[in-house]
Amino acid sequence: QVQLVESGGGLVQAGGSLRLSCAASGRTFSRYAMGWFRQAPGKEREFVAGISSSGGDTNYAASMKGRFTISRDNAKNTVYLQMNSLKPEDTAIYSCAAQFRNIVTPDGNRYDYWGQGTQVTVSS
Known about the structure:
Elements: E1 4-7, E2 10-13, E3 18-24, E4 33-39, E5 46-51, E6 58-60, E7 68-73, E8 78-83, E9 92-99, E10 113-114, E11 118-123
């Protein structure tokens, strides 16, 4: 069992930056691929970024590539999402997810554990 707790969300002006964190419980964090997803009101959940267990492989949604960076610190059981040049359309609840098959995939159905999410609001 893995528990995930996100933090770092908040209100920021367009063009600003935020860094989200996702802290995981358990000793096997380093074996899991991790992903960040987001869901805006009235919209479907959307893949943001993913990272392999070692951190050597990453994947980004096209609209986030170049603005967002995913990273992890296995010693701290934490995955991060650095978000720069934020836009109002980035407003959403951001959730992290873990999957033990270590497949970096945008398919949310392939993830095994989910956090509760953290709200990110970008004002214009």
